[in-house]
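Case 500 in the screening queue. Each case pairs one protein sequence with one candidate compound; here the compound is BES. For every case the pipeline is the same: read the inputs, emit a complex structure as tokens, and attach any notable structural observations.

Predict complex for case 500.
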Amino acid sequence: MEFSVKSGHPEKQRTACIVLGVFEPRRLSPVAENLDKITDGYFSNLIRRGDLEGKVDQMLLLHNIPNALCDRVLLVGCGRERDLTDAQYKKIIANSIKTLNDTGSMEAVSYLTELNVKGRDIQWKVRYATEAAMDSLYRFDQLKSKKDDTRRPLRKIVWSVPSRRDLPSGEVAVKEGLAIANGVSLAKNLGNLPGNICTPTYLANQALELANQYPKVTSQILEEADMEQLGMGSLLSVSKGSRQPAKLIIMNYAGADKETKPIVLVGKGLTFDAGGISLKPAKGMEEMKYDMCGGASVFGTMRALAEMELPLNVIGMVPSSENLPDGQANKPGDVVTSMSGQTIEVINTDAEGRLILCDALTYAERYEPDCVVDIATLTGACVIALGNHASGLFSNHNPLTHELLTAGRNSADRAWELPLWDEYQEQLNSDTADMANVGGREGGSITAACFLSRFTKKYHWAHLDIAGTAWRSGKGKGATGRPVPLLTQFLLHRANGGSK
Ligand code: BES
Ligand code: MN
Ligand code: ZN
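Case 500 output:
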């Protein structure tokens, strides 16, 4: 898909379709009103007759518009003007793009970017529209033998900006939007692939491919023998029950000089989580192919970053393994020794994410990082606490918390802070080892974060629990690509010297 920006009146556009907003109840948006005058009241007549109320999800495709140079006009219901939030804007853009794609317009000029969205400027609206458009056209059909191809698909979209002065920022917005959308697509593709295809080895190859594609990225794969040498007894204990070798995937993006301390992203890459000996129930277990979505978001963010060539140093780490029951697998009660030297009693083999993350987090120390952010589908409890709208955020450094919360708001990919108080730590006490790997049902996401915090004392660290946000369940299930927008926004902000 090709995106661009343009400023100009709708009556002058020679295009297959012009897209205009209509608010509820039966009110033309300002741009639609302008075109209405030239067409001798064509739209206002239709609306008066009750053809379009203006509700979100309503749409009207019109041909043969008097005095206009375009082939069609698509009127899009936008709901009530004062309710135009990020979420509603996304819906409106997505609806219009789907209709354009289904009705044979191969190119279009959309004026929806000129609608007022609460607290958002034109650059934001163009960027987010680009992301929303790509999101709505995404299909995961690599594994279908027959693909339902659209006959005349939408190929080119032009976002309108109110004045020529807005063109430069509009162009930046398109570029950033596409980079984020491409990162999101990569994260979705990896997330949606099943466990028999997307194995730790498959993910490792993805890292090598990324390094081939982008000159500033280099990749390195630590094999089980390497991890053995490093003393990663906790990570390796998870993969013991699997025939697929574990990998510690490391991508290095060098966009700044050597002295600049890197930001390290660590993503949980469990390519299938059956729970191990503490086996999960059968119902819905297929969704545990998504247990590598944290890792996928690291891949997606690395791609977006490399595409934008941001002046930062960023390390992306993805500890990757399966978690399966087997004669070699971890058993409840086993004690393992982590790379940090701390010993862990594995009370529940299904709490494996923290076991692979802790060794990766210890390894991250060697980069003397500016900060470390880990991203993991870590706990079912987080889905209970926050549902599917916000990722859970924990951090040992207040400024970092605020940076990430702000990045979430600015990218419409929000996180919400949960407490990391010392009081919760004692739930991890073990009679046998330095700690247990679970802390009971109460505050399950918090005790999981507390576990990780014992391995991140040497640097500024944040943890994003994306168990509720990384994929949608049920019919039409699929990976969302979250939190690539949040992470990329965080990096953009850093690249702009923390000012934007
Ligand atoms: N990958 C799961 C967490 C998960 C479960 C994410 C359901 C999304 C939906 C994780 O490895 C896990 O199994 N966690 C356990 C921890 C428990 C044993 C303390 C959980 O949440 O039940
Ligand atoms: Mn598990
Ligand atoms: Zn898991």
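Case 500 observations:
- The mean pLDDT is 97.
- The pocket of zinc ion (ligand 3) is lined by residues 270, 273, 291, 352-353 (CB under 6 Å).
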